[in-house]
Structures are given as C-alpha cells and as structure tokens.
UniProtKB/TrEMBL annotation:
Cofactor(s) essential for the protein: Mn(2+); Mg(2+)
Cytoplasm found in the keyword field: no
UniProt protein name: Inosine/xanthosine triphosphatase
EC number, as in UniProt: 3.6.1.73
Species whose genome carries this gene: Luteibacter yeojuensis
Length: 185
C-alpha cells in the first residue's frame, strides 16, 4: 500500500520559492509523493524588508496566513530581506516551517551587497528591481536573484533557500532531540 502524499503549502506563488521548497523537502521524504503548492500570503511588512526582525516577521506572517487559510501537512514561508552588520549591507532569506504546532525558523547565507544597491534600497526600491537595473536583467527575483548575479551563477536565490530550508527541518527530522513534538507525516 502506497503512503499518502504529503501536502505542502508555500506562502508565495513565486516559482523560485516554491521550487526551493520542493527541492529541499523531496529528498527528506524518500518514497513519498510531495504535493507542493504556492498560495498568495501577505507578509504584512514592506515589499523590501530592511532588517532581520522585519524579514523574520514577514516570514512568520506569511506562515500564519497559510495556516489559517489552507489545509496541509507542512506549511512553509520564505521572506527575502536586507540588513546591515559590522561587515556592511547584505541580503538573506528567512524561512519558516510548520507542522502541527511546531514552527522552525532558519536563515540563509549572508550575501554582501554593493553600496550602490544598498543606497537604492534606502531610497525605497526593491532589491530585484535594483539588480535588474544594475545588470540589465528582467524579473531576476523570479530567477537566480541577486545571489545569482553577484556570484556569476555559482549560487542562486533558490540554492540559498534550499540550504536554509533543509537546515530548518532539523527539529522535524530529529524530533526526539527537540522535545518530541515535531513528528513528520
């Protein structure tokens, strides 16, 4: 008898985010069919979050919206943001995953941003639009993202999200070490 499929709802219709979730989760459920579906989920934060806290809030808001408006085994939200550290401005993503009552939050790698890009963000532009202008691309945020452009394609927005998602799955993969409440379907 075949195992029932696992339904995953992603708090975005952006193909990069939905693809990252599918790529990250599929190998974690060998022999199981994964139905991964994106849905519009408002972040409740500006289109370009400018702090770690704002980016985290956006991901958690998207996650909560999905949980309130859909049925699934696993809910996932991804929010891209920007912040500044002692090393300068950078881009990153926050991922939030929920199964049952357990929520796990993770962060992607920290991509340094050129000063000109950061200045444009401070003026209210969104990173995808800034990168499109700087590199002559169109809709890069639904492709390789700033990460793809700034690494000459050696990493992509999707690959950064995939790694963050796999890492954020740790409490579900080893529920016994995290209080035992996050057993996977």
């Amino acid at each position: 008898m075949a195992a029932t499929p696992i339904k995953v709802i992603v708090g975005s219709r952006n193909p990069v985010k939905v693809g990252a979730v599918r790529t990250a989760l599929t190998p974690l459920f060998p022999g199981r069919e994964l139905h991964c579906e994106g849905m519009h989920a408002p972040s409740g934060v500006p289109d370009q979050p400018m702090t770690l806290a704002e980016t985290r809030e956006g991901a958690l808001n998207r996650l909560a919206y999905c949980r309130q408006h859909a049925e699934a085994d696993i809910f996932v939200a991804v929010e891209g943001g920007v912040d500044v550290s002692e090393d300068g401005p950078a881009n990153f993503g926050i991922v939030a995953i929920a199964h049952g009552e357990v929520v796990s939050v993770g962060r992607s790698a920290w991509l340094p941003l050129p000063p000109a890009a950061y200045e444009a963000l401070l003026d209210g532009e969104e990173l995808g639009h800034v990168m499109d202008r700087l590199f002559g691309t169109t809709n890069i945020k639904q492709q390789g993202g700033a990460i793809g452009l700034l690494t000459n394609g050696h990493a992509t927005r999707e690959s950064a999200y995939v790694q963050a998602l796999v890492l954020a799955m740790a409490p579900f993969l080893h529920a016994e070490l995290f209080g035992g409440e996050a057993k996977l379907p």
